[in-house]
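Escalated from tier 1: pyridoxal-5'-phosphate holo job.
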Amino acid sequence: MNELWSRRCRDLIPYVPGEQPKGRTFIKLNTNENPYPPSPMVIKAIKAAMGESLRLYPDPECTELREAIALALDAKAEQIFVGNGSDEVLSLAFQAFFDPDKPIRFADITYSFYPVFADFYGLTYREIPLDENFALPLEPFLEPGGGVVLANPNAPTGRELDFCDLRSIVEANPDSVVVVDEAYVDFGARSAVELVSRYPNLLVVRTFSKGRSLAGLRVGYAVGNQNLIAALNSVKNSFNSYPVDRLAQAGALGAIRDMDYFRATTTKIINTRACATCHLRKLGFTVCDSSANFLFVCHQNIPGKTLLDGLRQRGILVRWWDKPRISNYLRITVGTDEDMKALCAALKEILDEQI
Ligand SMILES: Cc1ncc(COP(=O)(O)O)c(C=O)c1O
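Tier 2 regenerated the structure:
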């Protein structure tokens, strides 16, 4: 049957998303979704958009949404590009800014979609090893090259990159694009958006999926110099002119306008993260300091896979990778206080069984 596939398709090793369970109910701490519902303003806006106008295509430029995002970020609408989730925005950025003859640099432990995009588009890359504490070594990113992709905070470690280091990387690469993936920036890290007007080679990519509780709506965006935004539009319009549907544009508008709800829910998650970190450390886990809505944890006596399976049996899903350096780690989404209590109780049971 594979003879019917293109050669390119046969060679693909696709990204594997976290499980979305069907049937059984789990405490779902495996895909970094927000445990709180979207703002009531989102639901109101989507209901208002549900009607006769759905027969019409949506605004291909997401004008009103870009204006609202620009207002929220103290940027200009011309500096914003909106896409179907930040995965799509990242994918367009890989096509718009990188060439096969100059390797892109990203960390060896980072969002596992980056090498998938690079392979898909026939690009080359260097995976720069993080140090033993999962910190980013600066030097390899200061050499000029074919572009840089950084997740900040990084995933799956949750570590925030020092702001001065980030700026140094952008300054050291004036002839190539530095993409900063801020999917998790809403949970306390400092954003690079403030640098966009100064550095024409900086593209910041963000999402409504995490901090705004809208993973199901698929809205992401980029903030960058107008020239970079023009390149993204050029690639987008060669692929799909209408990636963000009417309901998604309306819902995202509702979310970006409800700042109070956003602050209240992200603050709750930050507080829950602090408590859960404390509890897990008391149970004997090593927990990386996290600036994201997840924790990266390991236990010196119990393999990560044993913890993963033990939690699943107890109705809790977390994320684990069978990869060198991190196969003993779990990435655990910060849920509600109750979710994290259930998680700690389940982990204690597993520890009592194993030790
Ligand atoms: C680091 C990172 N970037 C981007 C994304 C994509 O988010 P979305 O496509 O939902 O905006 C994720 C999703 O989990 C992520 O972990």
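The first strand starts at residue 27 and ends at 28.
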